[in-house]
Amino acid sequence: xxxxxxxxxxxxxxxxxxxxxxxxxxxxxxxxxxxxxxxxxxxxxxxxxxxxxxxxxxxxxxxxxxxxxxxxxxxxxxxxxxxxxxxxxxxxxxxxxxxxxxxxxxxxxxxxxxxxxxxxxxxxxxxxxxxxxxxxxxxxxxxxxxxxxxxxxxxxxxxxxxxxxxxxxxxxxxxxxxxxxxxxxxxxxxxxxxxxxxxxxxxxxxxxxxxxxxxxxxxxxxxxxxxxxxxxxxxxxxxxxxxxxxxxxxxxxxxxxxxxxxxxxxxxxxxxxxxxxxxxxxxxxxxxxxxxxxxxxxxxxxxxxxxxxxxxxxxxxxxxxxxxxxxxxxx
Length: 331
What we know:
Layout: H1 3-11, E1 18-22, H2 26-41, E2 51-55, H3 56-59, H4 61-69, E3 78-83, H5 94-101, E4 107-113, H6 122-126, E5 132-134, H7 140-153, E6 157-158, H8 160-170, H9 174-187, E7 194-195, H10 197-202, H11 205-220, H12 224-236, H13 241-263, H14 268-275, H15 279-291, H16 296-312, H17 317-330
Parallel strand pairs: 1-4, 1-5, 2-3, 3-4, 6-7
Helix pairs in contact: 4-5, 7-8, 11-12, 11-13, 12-17, 13-14, 13-15, 13-16, 13-17, 14-15, 16-17
């Protein structure tokens, strides 16, 4: 069963007696546990007698089985969550294998493995057909769909364009994405529940700083693929092309300054102090300057000025700056 189908079953109030959740996306696994808890117990806050959670490596399979066999008290169902089942060998897990063949119908047993299991794994063989749920990292349209659905669960509404932009800026870290949606909603006012592109752009400052920092590192490392990807992220988030160009110019001037210092025979620590950067960053700039031809830094500075002139005359920003980054990484 895939994760989406499992969630749809929960929406219908279906909590099977045995489910194996396996995969590397821990946020989705924890979210599934929360949703099963809500389906079984509603908004109940005192779950001490209703839910038990085990670290199987410490407690052992037999303890999990004994908990699953207990009858519920004050509710129609119990929930037992067994984490770390991937650490059990077939022999260690034999009590579980026996139990899942005839599970207690009043217990929902969630077996949680924090890695993807192949079809030959003993757990995949042991659980009833259709009871294993793969939980893989989300990407593309799946990620956008999840983000919008998660926002609705949290009482918010994010439109598709805003969800796409936020995913592009934040990546597929689900915890960060959820937090950024909440921050974007607050950017529209304390009572705002709708998130559009404007609200997302209002909270991308931290992403902007991170992307600018990573772009400067990619330039020094001559990593054109990474630099071009970061340029796209910055421009898509509304960054001013002339602002990006100014940052590129500062990087080239730092390389030129280091090259001039090396040519003048100055010590590297003296050059590094003049660059006013963290030691590792300054060392990378000096190394880049050392590797360039004598006229390289000055030529790249001239290239930056040429692009600035063309942009101010109405040139197309994205291709001009993209070509400049390619030249800077090649030079």
